[in-house]
Amino acid sequence: MRGGDWVEVVEVYEVSPRELILNNHMNVVVEMWDSAATQLVWSGPENILAYRWSLWDGDALELGHEDRCQWMRDLGANVGLTVRAPDISKFALHGQGRFDALMSNADMAVTVDAHAYAGYVMLECELDSLTVRLHAGACSARAEGTVGTLSLFASGLSGVDAKGVQAQRVFVNQSAHPVLRFQAEEYAYVALNSHSNAVGTLPMPEDYYVVRNGSGQLIWEE
């Protein structure tokens, strides 16, 4: 089956999820808005979007597509998906692609889990707390903004660069090959469980604690 012409499909749900689960190969943009509804804007080859799917399970919305055209199309043309919804607090990424999220709610706690995910994650946030967990895979995650509490976990070939986040408190579990970067104002807890380093941005926080279970080091630099 050929991919077909490039098309755009818009779907609207009257309710909004608290958790968003993403599958397959997609470039996803998440935007929070004031409406109580959820809008999905899909873009891609029409014969791929014909096999897109969504599944509600309570307040969780799972999205994906079945690519039946992988041998008959340009694989550089990925499915795009823009999700507009209010206050999604949990994201689970499976598969590959790109995930960009803009989140602005100073009272919110948000968790992003990437499960054996291959691709890029970009988070712009103003939140009470942000948790980013990269479970194996080959994911490069970057975060910017302001949060009260920042929790970071990376393993395998995945890495987190959160030096652009102004956080009061940071909790780090460095179990990955790439360097993990962060900055903290008041307190930092850093567990070094691999051979790779965690790099904190100067000035150092008022207090910090380090647990070394691997050969990696905690380094402070400008």
Give your account of this protein's structure.
This protein is mainly β. It has two domains: 88 residues, Pectate Lyase C-like (3 Solenoid); 122 residues, 3 Solenoid (Pectate Lyase C-like), CATH 2.160.20.120. Helices cover 2% and strands 70% of the residues. The strands form two sheets. Strands 1, 2, 3, 4, 5, 6, 7, 8, 9, 10, 12 and 14 form a twelve-stranded mixed β-sheet that branches. A three-stranded parallel β-sheet has the order 11-13-15, with no helix packed on it. Strand 5 and strand 6 form a beta hairpin. The radius of gyration is 19 Å and the shape is globular. It starts with 5 loop residues before the first strand and ends with a strand.
